[in-house]
Automatic annotation (TrEMBL):
<protein>
    <submittedName>
        <fullName>Lytic murein transglycosylase</fullName>
    </submittedName>
</protein>
<feature type="domain" description="Transglycosylase SLT">
    <location>
        <begin position="27"/>
        <end position="316"/>
    </location>
</feature>
<dbReference type="GO" id="GO:0008933">
    <property type="term" value="F:peptidoglycan lytic transglycosylase activity"/>
</dbReference>
<dbReference type="Pfam" id="PF13406">
    <property type="entry name" value="SLT_2"/>
</dbReference>
<dbReference type="GO" id="GO:0009253">
    <property type="term" value="P:peptidoglycan catabolic process"/>
</dbReference>
<dbReference type="InterPro" id="IPR023346">
    <property type="entry name" value="Lysozyme-like_dom_sf"/>
</dbReference>
<dbReference type="Pfam" id="PF01471">
    <property type="entry name" value="PG_binding_1"/>
</dbReference>
<keyword id="KW-0732">Signal</keyword>
<dbReference type="InterPro" id="IPR031304">
    <property type="entry name" value="SLT_2"/>
</dbReference>
<dbReference type="InterPro" id="IPR043426">
    <property type="entry name" value="MltB-like"/>
</dbReference>
<feature type="domain" description="Peptidoglycan binding-like">
    <location>
        <begin position="337"/>
        <end position="391"/>
    </location>
</feature>
<dbReference type="InterPro" id="IPR002477">
    <property type="entry name" value="Peptidoglycan-bd-like"/>
</dbReference>
<dbReference type="InterPro" id="IPR036365">
    <property type="entry name" value="PGBD-like_sf"/>
</dbReference>
<dbReference type="InterPro" id="IPR036366">
    <property type="entry name" value="PGBDSf"/>
</dbReference>
<dbReference type="InterPro" id="IPR011970">
    <property type="entry name" value="MltB_2"/>
</dbReference>
<feature type="signal peptide">
    <location>
        <begin position="1"/>
        <end position="19"/>
    </location>
</feature>
Amino acid sequence: MRLLHAFAVLVLGTGTAAANVPCGGDFGAFTRAMEDEAIARGADPQVAARFFDGVRQDPETLEADRRQGVFQLPFVEFSRRLISQNRIERGRQMADRYDQVFDRIESEYGVSRGILLAFWAFETDYGAVQGDFNTVNSLMTLAHDCRRPDLFRPQVFAAIDLYAAGDIDPDTTTGAWAGEIGMVQMLPEDIRDNGVDGDGDGHVRLKESAPDALMSGAAMLRDLGWRPGEPWLQEVDLPQDFDWVQTGIDVERPVAQWASMGVTARTGSLGAGDLPASIVLPQGRNGPAFIAYPNFDVLFEWNESFVYVTTAAYFATRLEGAPVYDAGNPSDGLDDAQMKELQRKLQARGYDVGGVDGILGAGTRNAVQRVQAEMGLPADAWPTEELLNRL
């Protein structure tokens, strides 16, 4: 099992309208109904029959879908687990090996090599561990499951298109539990819509071809709104009397205004003065501090976990020469039981935390920051035992 594919939570494409086939019930009947719908959507009946022949429900996929505990780790611990000297050195080796591919990507798509190297590293350890879940079985299992069926059904129909093009095989293609395929773990719909034949062999095969995978990832980021030539994340120093309620990805100000408030780059200089940006404190005012530019927001379309995206964005800067962040001295976070208790208490006060799951997601961060401000505490969105006790 690769380092991240068991708990990657990607934002799934929803370009195709929701399927008419109801979720749940007998899996065999569901499979036959999906085959009929695929044909109704234009799939060749023989292709559809071969695609669905032998598909089976995968209980291990469902287990993986329910297992998201790693996102409960705070940023410093999470990033230290994922970023090693070996990964940095391997990243630089890959940058050299595929220098011409990255040059082409930066010229045609404006996506920095650091970003693609970071996702390549975290998703599959530079292609070494791409996942051993049968892709079609996983997609069909999640489409049949009633938790998020409309997110996965479009991926099944996109996978049929890839099969018809000769780019995947329903019997042998494997990947992550959520159906992502290849070195940078893209979903079938993204591969179909943004896949690039980077090595010129007439196919888009993200499992075997690094040029295909890297160029397809870049094309997807551009499609999601990547702004060529602009930064994404940068470590900053903040004054001691900073207004902490101004932090968080929901608060945007021009870089020049942040500079006037005392925000300085730890190394180099801040981005262009008119660029909109946010101040991000992954572990509160006593931990690392970053300024996040518009391209940082785009990365949430690849993965919706705040700690994952922040770590990947930071690692990309490391690969391009940034120093190790100043970890500071953040207070301890809450454990799973405490975080869930906090979320229940916030819900009881009328805050929308996005569900009691023990994960410090965007909804919980926003609620924490608001209640901190109400209580006269430093509103840095980092939950502590003190806050829990006060509630």
